[in-house]
Write a structure and sequence with these properties.
The protein has 143 residues and is an alpha+beta fold. It has a single domain, classed as Glycoprotein, Type 4 Pilin. It has a 4-stranded antiparallel sheet with strand order 1-2-3-4. The longest helix is centred in the N-terminal third of the chain and has 52 residues. The N and C termini lie far apart (72 Å).
Length: 143
């Protein structure tokens, strides 16, 4: 009487290990990218809040605010940025309304790069904001 052994063969185990390795090679970089984007949300939200204040300032005075530092943004626009640890420097250009924010303490892939929000004005006075900067394009918001 033949006795049948139970278990997996070596080739079946190697195939499973190869599949897990392929999935890990794809998933880990995607996970890292999504983690960086999630941490970057703090900076993009701060820049968006400043953009709203800059837009209101522009509508009221018909000029762009002069805010070369984060403290100027607090005093001129009323937006507090002091508690944000992932935001380095931030400024608003008085000539164009360009908002520039330096990223820090997130990941080496984006630290010390900048996010910008450019103000594009139309003839009716409305403002459209456009994202840009020196960060990897994968991390710059689409809208």
């Amino acid at each position: 009487m033949l006795r049948k052994e139970k278990g997996f063969t070596l080739i079946e185990l190697l195939i499973v290990i190869a599949i897990i390795g392929i999935l890990a090679a794809i998933a880990i970089p995607m996970y890292r990218t999504q983690t960086i984007k999630a941490k970057l949300t703090e900076v993009t939200n701060a820049v968006s809040n400043v953009a709203s204040a800059v837009g209101a300032y522009r509508q009221e005075t018909n000029t762009w605010p002069n805010c070369p530092a984060k403290s100027d943004i607090q005093s001129s626009l009323g937006v507090s940025l002091a508690a944000l640890t992932r935001l380095g420097t931030m400024s608003v250009a008085s000539a164009t309304g360009l908002i520039t924010a330096q990223i820090q303490s997130i990941d080496s892939a984006v630290d010390n790069s900048t996010l910008t929000l450019s103000a594009l004005t139309s003839s009716d006075g409305s403002i459209r904001w456009e994202w840009g900067g020196t960060a990897n394009p994968a991390y710059i918001p689409k809208r």
